[in-house]
């Protein structure tokens, strides 16, 4: 079976892990710090805070703004963690529709969804395509509302020559097993705001004002003393995934270039198939291509195409069923008497199918997927 994703792991990652094993410090420590500094430098922000997932990062990013109620605007097409982050904090997610081309938050609908209760906006760079950040930031700044980028799908993407993750109050990344770069499980929050970063370092470590590494080695001598200054969570990254992250970060641009080469082959192969739509890339962005989302013009074909490809040993997926269609959120919105309107998302998601895409895909595998797709209509 050709998988949808395949992480690119090898000797470089093992060598970094060995250094951590040899140091005998595998918890939150110097490798995590080194990875945070390297990641902040890569993105172009002053700070980076390592977490054990993007879900944790999103929760902390919302909690770090002191949000305990009100509304957080999220796009309809995303992984549920974006919306869960609001609910974890006692706020309500408000569903914003997506742009038909990019499948990212639609600024015109964002404008409509803002109310006096809006506490934050979380645009998602879906599949690796950057959101229209200038338009979103203009709307948010006008109303004094903070923006948190959900960059879980887009490590390495560019918006107007700037890295995704440096374009808002904070940004959350995912290093889950199959993302553009991986640490097995892991995440990161980037920000330029020093006060927020310091708070996030505490919140990710149950609210303690000094982590164990700092107490043991960074202070002049070991001190058992620490204080819990607020309620935090046990969401920190540790040195084993951070070691994998160091090797992956060095490879990231090469891995993303490998993804792009396969995307170009897919696009060329599908360009004359009038029943399909290939992924869109705006002129002023560089897509990170975590996902290759193909769309069929006739939604009735989507699930049959998935079945057809499975019979040919080709795995596919759908990213993502809109948040408000999940039973939990159907009940949530009903119980809060919140109307949801996202007609573009409701229509487009039924056409979406994610094809296999990973940097180590062979020419034969790409050919097999192309032939599999095109044979559906033939
Ligand atoms: C848009 C988006 N946000 C958040 C997440 C959560 O990431 P993690 O698995 O690292 O918690 C994902 C995971 O796929 C995602 O796609």
- Can you write the helix and strand succession as a string? HHEHEHEHEHEEEEEHHHEEEHHHEH
**Reading side by side through the largest sheet, how are the strands ordered?**
1-9-8-5
CATH architecture of the largest domain: 3-Layer(aba) Sandwich
| N→C terminal distance | 22 Å
CATH superfamily of the largest domain: Type I PLP-dependent aspartate aminotransferase-like (Major domain)
Estimated structural class: alpha/beta
Query: What hetero molecules are bound to the protein chains?
Result: pyridoxal-5'-phosphate
Number of domains: 2
Provide the helix percentage: 40-55%
What does this structure look like?
The protein is α/β, with parallel strands linked by helices. The protein has 2 domains: 11-250, Type I PLP-dependent aspartate aminotransferase-like (Major domain) (Aspartate Aminotransferase, domain 2, 3-Layer(aba) Sandwich), CATH 3.40.640.10; 253-377, Aspartate Aminotransferase, domain 1 (Alpha-Beta Complex). Helices cover 40% and strands 13% of the residues. The protein has helices at 11-23, 30-43, 54-63, 81-88, 107-113, 133-143, 194-203, 212-218, 239-270, 302-311, 327-335, 343-348, 363-377; strands at 47-51, 71-75, 92-96, 118-121, 148-150, 158-159, 162-163, 170-174, 187-191, 276-277, 285-286, 292-296, 352-355. The strands form 4 sheets. The chain has a 4-stranded mixed beta sheet with strand order 1-9-8-5, sandwiched between helices. A hairpin with a 2-residue loop joins β6 (158-159) and β7. α1 runs antiparallel to α9 and α2 runs parallel beside α9 (239-270). The protein is globular, with a radius of gyration of 21 Å. The two termini are 22 Å apart. The model has no long low-confidence stretch (mean pLDDT 96). The structure holds pyridoxal-5'-phosphate. Pyridoxal-5'-phosphate is lined by residues 53-55, 78-79, 81-82, 124, 150, 152-153, 174, 176, 187.
